[in-house]
Amino acid sequence: MNKTFPRLFFTLCLAFTALQPVLAADAKLIVAMMPKAKGNAYFLSCKAGADKAAKELGVELLFDGPTDSNAAKQNEIVENWITLGVDVIAVAAENKEGISTALRKAQKQGIKVVAYDADALPDARSFFVNQATPQGIGYTLMDEAARLCGEEGEFAIITASLTAANQREWQKHIEARLAEKYPKMKLVAVRPSDDLKDKAQSESTALMSANPNLKLLMAICSPGVPGAAEAVKQAGKIGKVKVIGLGLPNENKRYVHEGVTDSVVLWNTGDLGYLAIYAGVALAKDELKPGATSFKAGALGTFEIKGDNIMLGKPFIFNKANIDQFDF
Amino acid sequence: MAALGIVLLGLAIFAPAFFQPQPLLSLVTREAPTLIVACGMALVIITRQIDISVGSQFSVCSVCAGLLAARGWPLALVLPVSVTAGALLGALNGVLVAGLRLPSIVVTLATMVTLRQGLNLVRQGEFVNLPDNFQWFGLSQSAGQWTLVLTALLFLAGLGLALRHLAAGRWVYAVGTDAEAARLAGLRPQLITFAVFVFLGALTGLAAIMNLVQSPQVQPMVGAGLELKVIAAVVVGGVAISGGRGNLWGGFAGLLLLTCVSPALTHLHIEAYWEKAIQGAIILLAVVADGLRQKRLNR
After folding, report:
1. What gap in Å lies between CA B193 and CA B188, rounded to an integer?
2. Are A213 and A307 members of one domain?
């Protein structure tokens, strides 16, 4: 008796707490959003866009995730959300297979699931909000390089390693775009940096002295961009050798403001979060169904859907004018 | 040494641009911290031990120092903290190797992985931004670069002479040649081994600062691969992996030789695929040459 009572009481309390938001919200949809890691600035900037979408749509947004990148913890949180009876789950999967069992269970309970940033298995979610394609990234980098060089001159690529699959994929599209559109530009070298900023710097230093006509360094791994920028700065070649790359705003702000780095290419993380929430809510309201080929998300307009991937579209270019609006 | 001479001569003929003063100074400055760590590593290898956790120690020291600097601590305080942190990490290895007599390759493999993953967990790869006055000690760029290079060279010369002429230097060789004989001669091999690990740790902390002042931000995985670089440099420089033999000048030459490979390929417009293969071949040649020499000595 003494044992059962507290337990019963506790269960009731728990049930009440769980139901409360549902009761209080009065048919207001609850959207749960999970990052790979809660404190990570990248995901916080996704959340900023998600908050905006939630406000526009009049839904309640729960934002929770592991404090570090922890696949098991993600499952735990999804289980809790199922108990809580949320309407939509938007998830960035730390481990594709790991999270999918829990997500399938959620779908069986009638919860709509979308993945964003990092996909789950296709049968564990309705749509994946795809932030960028290798082709989009490769083409944007090459177009930006050509624009800065006036479509002619020598440039070099700093990559992570010569064998990394995603880097090779980007490089393939960069070279395809180069061959197709910019006959007067020449790729003189591709150097690996092992994903180390300092090695990227040494490589860039050597590239500049070995290729006196070099007009631009393009880094296609995130530590490579500040590494190349520091090399250009130390060589006193600011403006003479331009730097662009695929990277994170915070790592590059300093160099962008000093005029060393011209453009940093990535996607708009706020838009990514915004689109993920819009897609999840549309699913829950039955406005978005499998097989759709386009989708309209509030202020951002219409997005293309390829199969079950909602495409965020062209990558975003961070430069002097806008980089301070982003904090990740 | 001869190999280094040939490579430099080859470069002078085929790629004179390699010797432009400014890029060359940048290149050498980047390797100044590596040289400091290589000096410590040479001592550890001479005592017939190895420490493959230096890269992780380097990262930990860099991030700790970076975070303190970002909080506004001056260099005069950050430097001793970094050196102490390195010495403590070295002491941990030292206690396990010398105190518990565990094989150093296993101990330092464990500390390497633990420290690296711990750092990943804490920082999630996020860069540490340093205050503006930190780079180059607040001096001009070339003054800062020369300070670092001269510090490293003076240190090399000082330690090289000490190793040769001071009693403590001879002890290190004695322990590496034959620990039992050293013990019978009245030395305390375990204590010397411990001290050598602590010394390497402290030097790694110093090197972390020498690297820190070269750029305005710290990447948490900054030390990745450093262990391979310094061990290779030391071995190529003729320090016997079996202990007891070799000196710092050789390690210096080995480091220069291995460092030249990558920029040399860039200057000769050779594909980067060759870089690691050539570095590997240099190490292999050095080890084979050492093996042959050993065999001849034994005969």
Report:
1. 9
2. no
